[in-house]
Design brief:
The complex is a heterodimer. Chain A is mostly helical. Chain A has one domain. Chain A contains eleven helices and two strands. Chain B is 73% helix and 0% strand. Chain B is built from 16 helices and no strands. In chain B, helix 3 runs parallel beside helix 8 and helix 5 packs antiparallel against helix 11. By secondary structure, chain B is mainly α. Classes of the chains: A mainly alpha, B mainly alpha. Chains A and B meet through helix 4, helix 9 and helix 11 of A and helix 6, helix 12 and helix 14 of B.
Chain lengths: 289, 343
């Protein structure tokens, strides 16, 4: 029983991590209808920024996390302004090719600069080991992830639901043309959200170094996971991707614990079935416009 | 009635063999005699060209974006490998067709999944199927040999006459002939009324349906055909290299394939073949400059191609060949045109 709860908790932590990593992609896909396969590259950038700061420059881990966010967001906005914005009106094929090209470049560049082996980020002693909650062993690091990601999700939900920027963003996702007609500066809203999504991905990348492993092939390995979160969850709200992330995280961890032989088979099958059953995602309607 | 005859005249005119096409194949054959020491890489190019031709059928003619075309390549490769390894079908040509048919069967079954939904869903489903097959091949390592791949494949002589030699000469001519036959078939198909209806679907599925084209049935048919082609390409891979490993299913293979087709251009059949030549030459070049980081340059090529615009690149690529054609056949000669200008 306790082991089931432990693995459930690990699944939840994993799922929340996936949500932070992928929610930026939901906006890119939902708002601009842009298929950005290079989203994982921003996460990787964040992870490496944090790793360099903590391991080489001796920064504390908790100072490295915000820097990972800022660093990825800056890279994101720079690329958005210089490259991405030329491609919004292009076909999906062009977008796919472009972002695959970016992924390849980022993989080789990071391999060149940082080497091809897996990178670990030095954790403070307080985050190591397990604590015992009602007889259930819970990893401290995973607990921290759940707390951070949970707070982030709440904050995102509040921003989306309560602030003026949130309502602009929702309007733009729902119907960009009508939003422009109402005087909302959709490209600006989008650029900001894109940068924010990249920042979140960078933060997720830094957090995930311990759990998912950080190496130059990160964007390729987890591309499919991010896409699953977004396509299954839909992008009309953040609840959809959130639930999809949790589902994916729990299913993946459970699959690895209980039927290790099937490997990723279960996840891909579930994804295909869901996409057939509801092509626009479980909770969405605008994901695949 | 006149409209109908107009359509058929137009279709027949565009189906006529051009000087440039004859020149292309003559050049391909000439390469076999010009570079006798490069058979292995040329076989590689022919195989890749066939694989790209397969993607062109669904992408260039039917507009289906696939990120998992390696699935069919892999199935063809493993089928051919297993058939040869267990001595079920020893004759390579029959084994080739059999492997193609296995891939076509898979294509037929998965086409029902692919025709549902729009671009993004298709991307995900095709990618998912390839990953699924890779996971399966890894799981059933007692059949597929797992990460080591199929080992100890020994190919019998083709038609009982031509043995595979170590310089790859037989392999090259074998691949080239297979490519040529399949190319003729593809050419026939895309210039038939069936091919025209596919283009109608690519340009606007709704209108195509409105004028009575059975959209889904056509897409299923062409997807199955493309899977057959990809399966043959995979089987050629196994037969000419005596090797089949897990990486036949890899995402990089599907992504590289997109690049090949994009370099050459979609929707005129030669794109995949030209793209395969250019891609392999680029790969050789980058690998000789930076053996470990050539992926970076491949990525850069992709980004630049998209930013510059595919149509413009194709005009540049076709500039020299078209110049030569004009020189020889006069200004009004039919020249090769990229997709955006054609149709």
């Amino acid at each position: 029983m306790a082991s089931i709860l432990t693995s459930l908790f690990d699944g939840v932590a994993y799922g929340m991590l996936l949500f932070v990593l992928a929610c930026g992609l939901a906006v890119t896909l939902g708002l601009m209808n842009f298929v950005n396969l290079a989203h994982g590259a921003f996460a990787m950038a964040g992870g490496y920024i944090c790793a360099v700061l903590v391991n080489n420059s001796g920064w504390p881990f908790f100072a490295g996390l915000p820097l990972a966010f800022v660093g990825s967001a800056v890279i994101g906005i720079a690329l958005e302004r210089t490259l991405y914005r030329h491609l919004y009106s292009r076909s999906h094929l062009d977008q796919v090719l472009f972002s695959i090209g970016l992924v390849f470049m980022s993989v080789a560049a990071v391999d060149y600069i940082m080497g091809s082996s897996r990178v670990f980020i030095k954790l403070p002693a307080a985050l190591e080991g397990q604590i015992d909650l009602f007889g259930v062993g819970i990893g401290r690091y995973r607990l921290m992830i759940v707390v951070i990601c949970g707070l982030l999700t709440l904050a995102l939900q509040l921003i989306l639901a309560k602030t003026r920027f949130g309502s602009r963003l929702r309007a733009a996702v729902d119907d960009p043309r009508a939003a422009i007609g109402l005087g909302i500066n959709v490209p600006q809203v989008f650029a900001f959200t894109f940068a924010f999504g990249c920042g979140l991905a960078g933060l997720g990348g830094a957090l995930s170094a311990e759990i998912l492993g950080l190496d130059p092939y990160f964007p390729l390995k987890f591309m499919i996971y991010f896409l699953i979160v977004v396509t299954v969850g839909g992008s009309s709200s953040i609840t959809g991707p959130f639930l999809a992330s949790l589902l994916l995280g729990i299913a993946d961890v459970a699959g690895k614990y209980y039927v290790p032989k099937l490997g990723p088979f279960v996840i891909y099958t579930v994804m295909i079935v869901i996409l057939l059953w509801r092509p626009n995602g479980l909770f969405g309607r605008t994901a695949a416009r | 009635m006149t409209a109908l005859s107009d359509v058929s005249t137009h279709a027949m005119a565009s189906a006529r063999w051009r000087v440039s096409e004859v020149a292309f194949w003559a050049l391909a054959l000439a390469c076999a005699f010009l570079f006798p020491s490069r058979y292995l890489i040329m076989t590689d190019i022919v195989r890749l060209g066939l694989f790209a031709l397969s993607l062109d059928l669904i992408l260039g003619y039917a507009g289906i974006v696939s990120l998992g075309h390696a699935a069919f390549f892999g199935v063809g490769a493993y089928s051919a490998g297993l058939l040869a390894l267990h001595g079920i079908i020893n004759e390579p040509v029959i084994a080739l067709v059999a492997a193609g048919l296995v891939a076509a069967l898979l294509g037929f079954l998965t086409s029902f999944l692919v025709i549902r939904g729009v671009d993004l869903t298709r991307l995900m489903v095709t990618l998912g199927i390839a990953l699924l097959l890779e996971a399966l091949a890894e799981r059933f390592s007692n059949i597929t040999g797992g990460t080591d791949g199929l080992q100890g494949i020994e190919m019998q002589p083709i038609l009982g006459l031509f043995t595979f030699d170590m310089f790859g000469k037989t392999g090259f001519f074998y691949s080239l002939i297979v490519l040529f036959i399949l190319f003729l078939l593809a050419r026939r198909v895309v210039h038939s009324p069936f091919g025209l209806s596919l283009r109608a679907i690519r340009n606007n599925p709704l209108r195509a349906a409105a004028i009575g084209v059975p959209v889904n049935r056509r897409l299923i048919a062409v997807y199955t055909l493309a899977a057959f082609y990809a399966g043959i390409a995979g089987a050629l891979f196994t037969q000419t290299t005596a090797l089949a490993s897990l990486d036949v299913f890899s995402f990089e293979r599907s992504a590289d394939l997109m690049l090949v087709l994009v370099i050459g251009g979609t929707g005129y059949l030669y794109g995949g073949l030209i793209g395969a030549v250019v891609f392999k030459m680029l790969q050789e070049l980058f690998q000789s400059i930076t053996p470990q980081y050539w992926l970076f340059w491949i990525g850069l090529v992709l980004v630049v191609i998209v930013l510059v615009g595919r149509a413009r690149i194709h005009r540049w690529v076709l500039f020299v060949p078209n110049l030569i054609i004009r020189q020889f056949a006069g200004r009004k000669a039919a020249v090769a045109v990229p997709e955006s200008d054609a149709s």
